[in-house]
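Side project, low priority. Logging it here so it doesn't get lost.
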Amino acid sequence: MEYFDSLPEMDLMRSEQMSSVQLIMPVESAQRAVLYLGDLGLLQFQDLNVDKSPFQRTFVNQVKRCGEMSRKLRFFKDQIHKAGLMSSARPPLQQDLDLQELEVLLAEHERELIEMNNNSEKLRQTYNEMLEFKMVLQKAVGFLVSSNGHSAAEERELDDHVYSNGDYDDTASLLEREMRPGPSNQSGLRFISGIISKAKVLSFERMLFRATRGNMLFNQAPTDEQIVDPVSTEMVEKIVFVVFFSGEQAKTKILKICEAFGANCYPVPEDITKQRQLTGEVLSRLSELEVTLDAGIRHRNNALSSIESQLPKWTNMVRREKAVYDTLNMLNFDVTKKCLVGEGWCPTFAKPQIQEALQRATFDSSSQVGVIFHAMDPVESPPTHFRTNRFTSAFQEIVDAYGVARYQEANPAAYTVVTFPFLFAVMFGDWGHGICLLMGALFLIARESKLGSKKLGSFMEMLFGGRYVLLLMSLFSIYCGLIYNEFFSVPFHIFGLSAYQCRDATCSDASTVGLVKVRDAYPFGVDPSWRGSRSELPFLNSLKMKMSILLGVTQMNLGIILGYFNARFFRNSLDVRYQFVPHMIFLNSLFGYLSLLIIIKWCTGSQADLYHVMIYMFLSPFEDLGENQLFWGQRFIQIILLLAALVAVPWMLFPKPFILKRLHLERFQGRTYGILETSETHLDMEPGSAREHHEEFNFSEVFVHQMIHSIEFVLGAVSNTASYLRLWALSLAHSELSTVFYEKVLLLAWGYDNIIIRLVGLVVFAFATAFILLMMETLSAFLHALRLHWVEFQNKFYQGDGYKFRPFSFALLTDDED
């Protein structure tokens, strides 16, 4: 044991030692001190004003000011994005501003930008209206000319036979009146011209027809190009229309319908000379508006460019200041002493760095009184902090997703770095598929700096975060694929010649007697001659099933051993004697013994039936094993192991609750009263002391808890071992699925002497491999490996009821915290 104690501590094995600290900061240096601590990022502040609402805190006005400035900066960012401005490579240097100067500057920029936007919006609306007016003039003039452009012969015939009739004005329809030459107002015929969205034109025409009872003529023509709607400012297809009608009442109805449908009406004179004059005025006005709009856009873009060059700097400054004041609001403000009192947690190794940062803050703020920084006795469990890097952080996240480690308990992530990708590879083993995963992982790692600075989607962000997990999974998959001798389900003679040969020419048929061994065993992995043989599936099933049991028992034993190291670290001898020891005895008396039988059978080549051995070990322990005996004295050893397993169950169930009750009675013997609590005794209370645990000892609750734990372990030893058989099942499923795609798709297509069929088969095989084997199977094996670590491995020792160390750090601030 002294040897283990002398070993250096691992950063990932146990969490960092934490210290509870208190800071007493003068008001004049508090803001700068918190600023420097945010740059350092090694101190977690505790909120001492939990009972106060955000509006009752000391620095609420400063937080509101920072929030208002953040809103203005977001407004600038949206405007820059809408303008499509590119970020400048080299922002111009500008003198540093304090928060008040920045607040005034942002208010000026916002006011100028809002004014420019309003002016630009008005000009744009006028320009769009002029553009619509031009479209209406171009199309409506054609309708008016065509209505008066009948041939002279038709006009004379109508004059002689129709118009000369005195009753014509009373009996003629509106269409006939519209077709009669001459000024329209002679017969009371009028028209309204305008423009409407193409999506509304059918409903608009139908409504006009119903409102006028069909007494109107509707002409329409599409515009030559899409134009911007003045109201919605979106590019839409529009239709120019001219409605001919008669009567003042019809005009009122038509105008109301135009207003309801959002149609813009524009006056078009009947006189051709006036039409040409008006068209010229509209074109001239459009050119003037274009020049004015271009000048306004250039001026606005220049203003936005000057803002854009400083926007990241300003955003970072406001974000930091807001975080500082949010942190100051967590401190107690002592009005009499004019100081702020804060409490928090920091890693023990960081104390000198924090002390140095506080001294710099005192010096830079010209404060006469320094910041007091001292350690306190903790009154609650410290937070958990592991120092991780780019490689280990993803594995730590996998463990933390189950639960954050209790303070300084053994961290499963130190072992998950190896066991997680290895168990994945046992289920996914194919060195062809592993190479595909390796190429993807190497691509993500090679573009690490570029992808790390981009904002990725949720799936890509998860994939990029686990790039080193993917790297190890691919490497272990290649290793296990070489052991299984599978390259896209095809075996290769990589490490030499096969140890077997066919007995006759029909060896590959299902009715053959099998293979004959002619030389030493294949040096590495599965012999390729097993592929396609009659005994391939029974052999691989037996191999992978027994291998799964060995891996499972090994990992569960590792979990129990880590529980022992936890008990030793926390100096809990009861857990060592009455938890670790019976756990090891029970698990290894049954499944450890099974693993030993598997290894002996592999080494000796025995034909013993291990199912029969394990079943009759319980049913008939004194019966002779016969041909199933693997070594001398096996029956006697089985009886001893069975008795040890039976003894281990009450060993882990009964002693611990009664010993805890006896210790409690000895500690508080003769005390029938409680300890009087004062503020001093409560603050001085040390964790683990008698004063902390003077509450009533509930023996029934402790006993029930221990009974549940014992039953869970006994049943879990069986179910967890069976759960590791998923390694066999998933590996077999992956291999068989890969074989199906290879034989029934690729080889089947390659059997045809047609290049098109071969290409189709190759494409189908590639898509099936990519989307089913490389994506779905990868996800399936990942989730099953996750389950084995969370349930089968970690429940042997891992409490997972801690909470993360979240220091106040500017590096951890995100855009969402604006």
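Brief comment: The chain is about 60% helix and 10% strand.
Revisit when time allows.
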